[in-house]
Write a structure and sequence with these properties.
Length: about 600
């Protein structure tokens, strides 16, 4: 994607003037400028030069008194479901961008592109070309805080270009996940970093460190000798992100290896920093700083901080974790600071990463084990499980391939459903969040109405969460609630989260759910591993409905809910057929 469109040109602009302009701003180009009336085209040597031209010139530089518009040139026939959004404010919260993108359609993937500009650039994949077209039309020029968004298509490379040179979108030219302040991709990335591409099914979680910038030179060594030695001895792939966050006091380091290899590399780096500090008479304490995705941190801390306290006691270290308020669109990681001797810090690193790896592996195992139970659901796109952190490999084999069809959860237009989910009373605060922030974010993410019913008494042990929305929204909302309860340690480390859910069915359909002699309900329980109960002698409510109780882990409960909804749909179809045959008018759909 190296061909540029230069717009808003005066009628008398010549190719020579554009050549001089690019030379003045030290921007490389290849070939000649193709000038038309009011616009022009030019090729750049590679994507980095194209991005520099866009960031430097577009909306900032005038020619003949008119501000230039510079963007990637994409022919109509190559316009795809993918777009690139530039000039995003650096401190924008991810929820704000998420909700903005969602206004124009279903977003399948969103990931950051490395640039040298102060503002951020993201590549977005929509479910359809029409969604992408609407986003380009509406968001290009959109004012966000003090920045004006610039939006352009990423070409569809399956369509031949007129130019003989085939170009790649920036998402395939470099690994966008290497950035410390990287936007976390939703859904599986198109390409993983070389260090994560080893043929290995075991979860390969990188160790991510933050080190003081003044020690980076010592870690690299003369002509890279020191870092090569570390890499060789520990059999690790180590990336030192020197060019990121220019002028920052700390730089991130990503290490890919076995757990033992990562720990050995960490120990060597800590030792080098201590020696360099002595040689340069640096008197401040040098803590070990580990970066970890926020989704794992709750389980690392443990209920009332028990896990963290245990690690501190066993390793004779002091551990603190950066606050949630520091998380932004570009910083999804928390900083875990460990203070103590080199030996204490290294022991703490082993225990911390052991806990993080366990959390990741448990989530991925559960996803792969149960994903087949609900056909058509793209679990990665739903974001129920922690997305890959920067440098993290994709989920193990068996998950949805990146070339899968767009997420189409249901063939027919789904109708809204209401589910009553019962959670521990003590967990209500965690679900609601500070000033209701978590429940609001969850509601936006899932596209569902989520409310906590008032407590029925002062000593109740469970509270009812009322979730209203279509099946996809139910899946997303309930999945996040299950995950939150596990993350906040309301269930033990080896204990499965099992919750009770209630759905209401017409009283005349309850018999179909039960089946003759309980056959249907027994088959449901055997198939889903959930406990399904239709209490006997229920009195139907004012809508002539009765309750079906479902108890089980998340996937079991979801499958049971879907199977029961299938039975109800079948009952409704049969009822409509009877009405047609008897000549009765069918009720109109709202």
């Amino acid at each position: 994607m190296n061909k540029l469109y230069i717009g808003n040109l005066g009628e008398n602009v010549s190719p020579m003037e554009l050549e001089n302009l690019f030379k003045d701003w030290k921007i490389s180009y290849t070939g000649q400028f193709l000038v038309k009336t009011g616009y022009a085209f030019v090729d750049c040597p590679d994507e980095s030069w194209a991005m520099k031209a866009i960031d430097t010139l577009s909306g900032k530089v005038e020619l003949h008194g008119k501000l230039l518009e510079v963007e990637h040139s994409v022919p109509k026939r190559q316009r795809s479901r993918k777009i690139q959004i530039r000039n995003i404010p650096p401190l924008l919260q991810w929820e704000v961008l998420d909700s903005l993108l969602a206004q124009y359609g279903t977003v399948e993937n969103c990931e950051q592109v490395n640039t040298e500009s102060e503002t951020a650039v993201v590549n977005v994949t929509y479910a359809t070309k029409e969604h992408a077209r609407q986003a380009v039309e509406k968001l290009n020029g959109y004012q966000m805080e003090t920045s004006t968004l610039k939006v352009a298509y990423i070409p569809d490379e399956t369509v031949p270009q007129q130019s003989p040179v085939q170009q790649q979108p920036p998402s395939q030219q470099q690994n966008p996940q290497a950035n410390r302040r990287g936007f976390i991709p939703r859904g599986q990335p198109r390409q993983v970093s070389p260090g994560a591409a080893r043929p290995k099914q075991q979860a390969d979680i990188p160790l991510r460190l933050l080190v003081p910038t003044q020690f980076v030179g010592a870690i690299i060594g003369k002509e890279g000798a020191t870092i090569r030695n570390i890499t060789k001895q520990t059999q690790s792939k180590i990336d030192i992100h020197r060019k990121e966050n220019a002028g920052a006091a700390e730089k991130p380091i990503t290490m890919h290896s076995t757990p033992e290899g990562c720990s050995a590399a960490c120990r060597m780096i800590m030792t080098i920093m201590q020696k360099e500090a002595q040689d340069t008479k640096f008197t401040e304490e040098i803590p070990l700083k580990i970066l970890a995705h926020n989704n794992f941190v709750g389980r690392l801390i443990g209920k009332e901080g028990r896990n963290l306290k245990k690690i501190e006691q066993e390793t004779d270290s002091k551990i603190t974790i950066s606050p949630l308020q520091d998380l932004t669109l570009y910083n999804p990681e928390r900083t875990i600071t460990v203070k103590g001797s080199v030996e204490a810090c290294c022991k703490a690193e082993e225990e911390i990463m052991k806990k993080i790896r366990e959390s990741y592996e448990n989530d991925i195992a559960a996803m792969n084990l149960q994903a087949h139970l609900i056909p058509g659901l793209n679990l990665n796109a739903l974001g129920l499980f922690p997305p890959s952190s920067p440098g993290m490999p994709p989920p193990p084999l068996g998950s949805t391939p990146p070339t899968a069809a767009p997420y189409l959860p249901f063939v027919q237009q789904p109708e809204s459903e209401t589910v009553h989910l019962f959670i521990p009373a003590l967990a209500v605060g965690a679900i609601i969040g500070k000033q209701g922030q978590h429940i609001k974010q969850l509601s936006r993410f899932a596209g569902a109405s989520i409310k906590i019913a008032p407590a029925e008494g002062p000593d109740v042990k469970q509270r009812m969460v009322i979730i209203t929305g279509p099946p996809e929204a139910q899946f997303k909302a309930q999945g996040r609630i299950y995950g939150k309860l596990k993350e906040e340690n309301f269930f033990g480390p080896k204990e499965e989260v099992k919750l009770e859910a209630h759905i209401k069915v017409p009283s005349f359909a309850a018999g179909r759910v039960i089946g003759k002699g309980g056959k249907t309900v027994n088959e449901l329980q055997n198939l889903t591993s959930a406990e399904v109960v239709v209490p006997r002698e229920q009195t139907p409510d004012e809508n002539d409905q009765v309750i079906v109780k479902i108890t089980g882990h998340f996937y079991a409960s979801q499958l049971a809910q879907r199977k029961i909804q299938e039975i109800l749909a079948q009952v409704r179809r049969q009822q409509q057929q009877k009405n047609v045959q008897s000549g009765q008018p069918q009720p109109r759909r709202k």
